[in-house]
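Before relying on records like the one below, remember that each one covers exactly one chain. Contacts with other chains, cofactors or solvent are not represented anywhere in the record.
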Amino acid sequence: MQVKLLSPSQWSASKEKITRFLYRHGDSRITHGGLAALNALTPSRLAAGRSADGAAAAVAVAIEHGRLAAVAFAEDGGERACLVVVSPEFRGQGTGSALLRALHRRLGRLTCSVASDNASSMNMCFRAGMKAVSLHNGPTGKPTLRFER
């Protein structure tokens, strides 16, 4: 499996395909805010590079045999948005964790929020080297863990 960070031109060319992938495989767990941030993402935001505080955006994808297997996105170190979607046939194989590690390398820091009833996503964060640092109510009112790295 190949994991890569998208360049601004690659993002422009694949935005529609990635958006369809998220809706098809996100299992209705991606927040409206996360999807809105991704839809508003401009190529210049990806080109901004890493700033002193790590505030930038990154889109990482996993490709297997020429097919899109997973997508991850974070903006402002995950404070504005952090989402990961893995196609069902690639779940449980470390794909999501590999994408989170790629986002962390690019952004310098990473924060993600995961609803407490989403054990597989919590495991993905732990496998990526993240730590649960707090518990709060998420946008849907569910108890939600904040992960940081």
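The mean pLDDT is 92.
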